[in-house]
Write a structure and sequence with these properties.
Strand content: under 5%
Largest sheet: 2 strands, antiparallel
Helix content: 25-40%
Order of helices and strands: HHHEE
């Protein structure tokens, strides 16, 4: 697929990217090369190939879903520069 300066200019506008006029031709050439490479992927025979989510057979370890209160409020708030009523205290930023 061949892109020209007008298409690249329009894509840059839609992406809100400022591209100088002298960079449009090289960028059009590079993007055309990328699209040509992507088109080559359609020639690959994937018949009978199962979809993959990973290249390794990793299995997630399951754990029992137990609800707890954490019980670490005091130790967590000990790291805070300032705490108030069991919460982190922060300076007011909205007037």
């Amino acid at each position: 697929m061949s892109l020209d300066k007008d298409i690249v200019r329009n894509v840059a506008f839609l992406a809100r990217i400022e591209v100088p006029e002298d960079r449009l031709d090289p960028l059009a050439s590079q993007l055309s090369g990328i699209l040509d490479w992507v088109e080559q992927l359609s020639d690959v025979n994937t018949e009978g190939t199962e979809p993959m989510t990973s290249v390794t057979d990793a299995v997630l370890r399951w754990r029992e879903d137990i609800v707890s209160d954490g019980g670490m409020c005091d130790s967590i708030l000990a790291n805070a520069p300032e705490a108030m009523d069991g919460f982190f205290a922060v300076p007011k930023v909205v007037e």
